[in-house]
Write a structure and sequence with these properties.
Shape: elongated
Strand content: 15-25%
Structural class: alpha+beta
Number of strands: 9
Radius of gyration: 23 Å
Largest sheet: 7 strands, antiparallel
Length: 381
């Protein structure tokens, strides 16, 4: 139990570290352009501790869900004295403001490249798609999450279990692809099936009945799966950065394709893809903690993936995100003058409130059950 809590804390701090790196991307480019940065904070106010170095306050704050950088003149409010100052964000040329805004997003991609380079340099057990066949050694389907009150949870399945076989009506089918598992369980909803699983050095038989009408965002069995290949060949140290960069690009392209399929399904009334689910900061922390159980390679891989996905999410054209700020700058470029400060602030406030409410909904609906399951499984160890 204690070790699981330590892993959970490390996972949470890793997620916070990504947010700090993101804000550092804004911070460093603003500094390079000579813009005054009033504060760089870890966490959100109220402040626990702050120290002023030069003109910038570096602070630690009570609400540990991210980080922030306060850049002089970013809000563009009138009457604050000196917003026309050459060191004000609002006085910069648009292309420089664009670079400051996308600096945080680029920081995510640079982080992903570094992390994936480390993964390739050390070699590791990593998730692979069902379509990836070349160079795989002992491909296995592993459980990475178990939904609360699902058939899998009731049957006692746990994260880190390896599913080797499914037995239906006396017919034993070997499983080494996620799609094979999904097809068999989909074809046998409402019928009892038996899973052969490996847990540490033990082989267990687990019987369960896939649900006919699973809750939204969950599959019929209620588990998240990854197909993993054992000991992917290490890259030479001088090739690891190249492989890391290429993998970051591939991951970005695949993520964009996945988002397109997801949104197309939602807009077309098809719902989310099989096995897809929503997760907020707490849920991502639990996923990271579970990933750590598969070894350092998978843990680092997962952080790299999260870094790519958050980078893409931040570019969504939603006010309160970096993509939304870019939209306001585009409007300013087209119109020849900035959007009214009051209008921009109100739009940003409304969108920020919606994002917070959505985050709270996801946390209550999806993340708290995941967190509870994680704690329960930790107690059972």
């Amino acid at each position: 139990m204690f070790s699981s809590i330590i892993i959970l804390v490390v996972a949470f701090l890793s997620l916070i570290a990504l947010m700090v790196i993101h804000e550092f991307g804004h911070f460093i480019i603003a500094k390079k352009f000579g813009i005054r940065v009033d504060e760089f904070g870890i966490g959100y106010p109220p402040r626990i501790f702050g120290k002023k170095i030069g003109e910038t306050i570096y602070s630690i704050n009570w609400i540990p869900f991210g980080a922030f950088v306060r850049i002089y003149g970013e809000e563009g409010l009138p009457g604050q004295g000196g917003l026309d100052n050459y060191r004000s964000f609002s006085n910069l040329k648009i292309w420089k403001r664009v670079l400051i805004i996308i600096g945080g997003v680029v920081a995510f991609w640079i982080t992903a490249i570094i992390i994936f380079s480390i993964v390739f340099a050390m070699g590791a057990d990593l998730p692979v798609g069902d379509q990836d066949m070349q160079g795989l050694t002992n491909a296995q389907v592993k459980v990475i999450s178990v939904s609360a009150n699902s058939p899998a949870s009731v049957a006692g399945l746990q994260s880190r279990d390896t599913i080797t076989d499914i037995i239906v009506g006396g017919v034993d089918t070997k499983i080494n692809k996620v799609a094979d598992f999904q097809k068999i369980t989909a074809d046998n909803k409402g019928k009892e099936i038996t899973l052969l699983i490996k847990r540490d050095s033990n082989v267990l038989n687990v019987s369960l009945t896939p649900r006919v009408n699973p809750p939204a965002g969950e599959g019929s069995v209620g588990i998240g799966l990854e197909r993993m290949a054992t000991l992917i060949k290490k890259s030479a140290w001088y090739m690891a950065p190249v492989d890391g960069a290429v993998y970051t690009w591939q991951t970005t392209v695949d993520a964009l394709k996945g988002l397109y399929i997801t949104f197309s399904g939602l807009l077309g009334g098809k719902g989310t893809p099989e096995g897809a689910s929503f997760a907020g900061p707490l849920g991502i922390t639990v996923f990271l903690a579970n990933a750590a159980s598969f070894g350092a390679g998978f843990f680092l891989y997962f952080i790299g993936m999260i870094s790519v996905f958050i980078a893409i999410f931040n570019l969504f054209p939603i006010p309160a995100l970096d993509g939304g700020k870019l939209v306001f700058l585009l409007i300013e470029k087209i119109k020849g003058k900035p959007v009214s400060v009051k209008v921009e602030q109100w739009i940003t406030l409304v969108c920020f409130t919606i994002l917070i409410l959505l985050s709270l909904f996801i946390t209550i609906k999806f993340d708290i059950p995941r967190f509870t399951d994680f704690l329960k499984s930790s107690l059972l160890k």
